[in-house]
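Marked as duplicate of an earlier ticket. Keeping the data here for the record.
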Amino acid sequence: MNTNYSIIRIQQYLNGELGKDEMYQLEREALDDPLLQDAIDGYRMQKEVSHRQLSLLQQRLAARIAGQANERNAFYFGWQRLAIAATACVLMVLVLVLLWMRNYHMQPKATEKEVKVELAPSEEVTHIHAEDVGEAGFDAQPEGGWNLFNAYLAESTDKLTVAGKAELTFEIDAEGKPAAIQSIGTTDALLLTEMQQLLEEGPAWKGTKAKITIAVE
């Protein structure tokens, strides 16, 4: 759309001095441009318009059109610069966040501490010996004799982890195996458990009830 309108052309239009095609073209331009329509209406209301007045009006019209164009350009470039600046700020923030995350993961955490646990070495059992207490009412004896039973215990030292001494009583079941094994006095719980396992897995016994001492060194 042409925005450089001639005042003389508008005057010729109002005086009917333009051809039909030129008049039709100017009228279509006036429909698309409110400024041109305002200029035509203004000139139509003037009875006498001098060339000097026409020149002033043309200058004002041109200045007004140029001013609106400058305002549109300033508005467009202002928003364009603002958008570029906002994009740059967002990218800078993202870069800073990525750098912070990288440094955070590379630094050792203060809550993580190296803990060394030293386990106390277990007691090495090298000797075990059992014998009959010899009290009345306790008639049970290991089948094969005490020498054979102590030989069995000596071969089982690898199953023991605690040293100590215990006095035990137990009954002999129908299969000749120790049952209801109990400790007399205070005995280490782990030592008692390991002795009970040795008696239950060991040779058969004869009799009804036994009372023995077992020393683990």
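See parent ticket for discussion. The chain is about 50% helix and 15% strand.
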